[in-house]
Known about the structure:
Elements: E1 43-55, H1 57-64, H2 73-86, H3 88-91, E2 100-110, E3 120-132, H4 137-155, E4 163-173, E5 180-181
Helix pairs in contact: 2-4
Amino acid sequence: MKRPPVGSKDENSLETKDEPTSLSHLDEEGHARMVDVGEKQDTRRRAVALARISMRAETLEVIEEGRAKKGDVLAAARIAGIMAAKRTSDLVPLCHPILLTHVSVDLEPHHAPNDGEAEAEIVIRATCESVGPTGVEMEALTAVSVAGLTLYDMCKAIDRGMVIREVMLQEKEGGRSGPWKRG
Length: 183
């Protein structure tokens, strides 16, 4: 999928007001920097991210029936996603440490139709909330990513062909740019 150039506006742009002309994590010389949020107003922030992990139908059956050798796959992935959201600033270098007020990770199994072609999948959805000067999009994206990696890790012995895909922000609320929702 071809993406528009950085700084251009498209239907998925988060910028709904006062389109920026530069990337906020770069200084005048193009060096990476952490954005100063000291003067920003605290607002209620919420972000929802989504990812999918596709797998063989047999793998999903093992997960749902609790037969994975490493234990409860869905519980481990849920806890890993929550823990990852809380540690995002340790993983993503220019993220601010954020006091999260809520994190949830939901895992929804989807079975393949009986056509012999399609794979099964688990849809991973994370919701993060806080009250502060900066958003929680990265925390939600980190949560779904690590939950997906945990699913892969716990089942790789039976299905190395699993694919983590479509990691994306679904919606966000709060802040200067206001609400945004994927179309």
